[in-house]
Specification:
Elements: E1 2-6, H1 11-22, E2 26-31, H2 38-42, E3 46-49, E4 67-70, H3 81-99, E5 105-109, H4 136-153, E6 158-164, E7 166-168, H5 173-184, E8 189-190, E9 199-201, H6 202-214, E10 222-225, H7 233-244, E11 251-252, H8 254-268, H9 279-285, H10 294-299, H11 308-320
Parallel strand pairs: 1-2, 1-4, 2-3, 4-5, 5-6, 6-10, 7-9, 8-11
Helix pairs in contact: 1-6, 3-4, 5-7, 7-11, 8-9
Length: 323
């Protein structure tokens, strides 16, 4: 099978590419001009250069491609609405246009954020409609999902949506950012850190994405991927902190943290300065985001393979190498 991966040099994309190559799929990757793709090329990946916000640079990208795994986007908790919509909505629209009538399958990597951050998501089903919240990342993902569904319904390309929960592993934002903050200042818990981390380990996620891109039953549907770990944010931050000789300090009630994030974003985003607290981060850590995964497990046969203990072992080894 010939596949295209956008975001192939990223945290999730690099793991997905390795698994696709192990299946003996032929992989084409889209990379920015000048981006370091040495590791991809050494592994036998065909690299094309382009920018998803520049339609002209994408011409011919989807020729001879069976399945597209679209992962590229703005993956951070801060930024302006325009930055998120350019990198998520507009980029997806341009790729869908290029894929229409050329590729057979389009797997869009969304997020459980599309279901409406700022509220508890426990039990939200894969068939429930997305909901906007005013958080730019959340809203851009929700609108991009609607666009993907429109192209699918119009018969332009057969689409599947995957919604990862909070993706963790060596190099994940939930490792890098928390470790950097603990090393530089303090990391408070939100609502005592009592809610589930709602993690999906990156290798477990990549397995699910491949199932979504290869199983016929997945066409036209959306799937949540969240591991069945029973791990609170308090336990995780304490476990992570022990690896670097740090620990969390303090606690913020959710409502206080949400208001602080709102004010800081309003002041700092127009200046393109990262806020030390954002509504997105508060929504992840201070709400219960254990979405329902029955469709992914029942229809796709997906399951958790990498355990929490094994995941933390890999993260510990990554940090020990000086990261």
């Amino acid at each position: 099978m010939k596949v295209l991966v956008t975001g192939a040099t990223g945290f999730i994309g690099s793991v997905l590419v390795k698994k696709l190559l192990a299946r003996r799929d032929r992989v084409r990757a889209l990379a920015f001009p000048g981006e370091d793709t040495g590791a991809l090329e050494k592994a036998g990946v065909e690299v094309r250069r382009g920018d998803l916000t520049d339609p002209a640079s994408l011409r011919g990208l989807c020729e001879d491609i069976d399945t597209i795994y679209h992962l590229a986007g703005r993956v951070t908790d801060w930024g302006t609405k325009k930055q998120f919509y350019d990198a998520i909505y507009t980029a997806t629209e341009n790729l869908l246009k290029e894929a229409s009538g050329k590729s057979r399958r389009f797997v869009y990597t969304s997020s459980i954020a599309a279901m409406g951050f700022g509220r508890h998501l426990r039990g939200v089903r894969e068939t429930d409609p997305p909901r906007k919240s005013g958080v730019p990342y959340n809203d851009a993902k929700a609108d991009a999902e609607a666009l993907v569904r429109q192209y699918h319904d119009d018969g332009a390309v057969r689409c599947t949506i995957v919604r990862p929960a909070n993706v963790v592993g060596p190099g994940s934002a939930w490792v890098r950012d928390i470790v950097a903050q603990m090393r530089g200042s303090v990391v408070p818990l939100v609502d005592g850190g009592r809610y589930s981390t709602s993690f999906v380990e990156v290798e477990n996620l990549a397995d699910g994405m491949i199932l979504a891109g290869t199983k016929e039953v997945a066409v036209g549907k959306a799937y949540h991927f969240r591991d069945d770990w029973d791990i609170s944010w308090k336990r995780y931050v304490e476990d992570l902190g022990r690896m670097i000789g740090k620990r969390p300090h303090g606690n913020l009630p959710f409502r206080v943290a949400w208001i602080m994030g709102t004010v800081l974003e309003f002041i700092l985003n127009p200046l393109h300065v990262r806020s030390p607290l954002t509504r997105l981060a508060v929504s992840v850590i201070g709400r219960d985001n254990d979405v329902d995964t029955n469709l992914a497990r029942g229809e796709l046969g997906w399951k958790t393979v990498v355990t929490y203990e094994k995941a933390m072992e890999k993260i510990g080894a990554w940090l020990a190498r000086g990261n």
